Amino acid sequence: xxxxxxxxxxxxxxxxxxxxxxxxxxxxxxxxxxxxxxxxxxxxxxxxxxxxxxxxxxxxxxxxxxxxxxxxxxxxxxxxxxxxxxxxxxxxxxxxxxxxxxxxxxxxxxxxxxxxxxxxxxxxxxxxxxxxxxxxxxxxxxxxxxxxxxxxxxxxxxxxxxxxxxxxxxxxxxxxxxxxxxxxxxxxxxxxxxxxxxxxxxxxxxxxxxx
Length: 211
What we know:
The chain is mainly alpha-helical. It is built from six helices and five strands, in the order αββαβββαααα. The protein has helices at residues 13-31, 50-53, 102-121, 137-156, 160-164, 181-208, and strands spanning 34-36, 42-44, 64-66, 77-79, 84-88. A three-stranded antiparallel β-sheet has the order 3-5-4, covered by helices on one side. Strands 1-2 form a two-stranded antiparallel ribbon. The termini are far apart.
């Protein structure tokens, strides 16, 4: 994947490269058959299964649930569209935050990237309840990768003026309308990096429980 084009603002280039590396490493970590260890060494990894995707490692997890079953512990609603929804709650959220499953975290990332892309160079209308929640791992990985592609396309459409524009992203579930777009780009990278690390650790814990 080409990191940038000749018209990409120079200060956006390192953020694009960071996003590409984190995105590729996460998708490979989920789908296999191998992932970059970080130094160019390929490490074998099995694709995530549906059982692992919905695994609840501790009591009281937030996860994805059939709407007919209602929200899980401390959740008050199921966000998203479709037969399944993601555990959520109106403000104020539970404290401390509930532990969340791989499915919850992947859904959160996919939704965030999809909606931010739409609120940057799309219709500027998508809401959380428009995002389709899926119950199988393979589709979740595909949806995450598609969402990352949409966000990347939004970034490639940004020039220097857009990077400095407050509210260039109108995403309504964050501070985007009050922030210069460059800050939003940085924040999305941090979301991908830290949730990607959490997801990788959960995959390791799931594998270790079988030994």
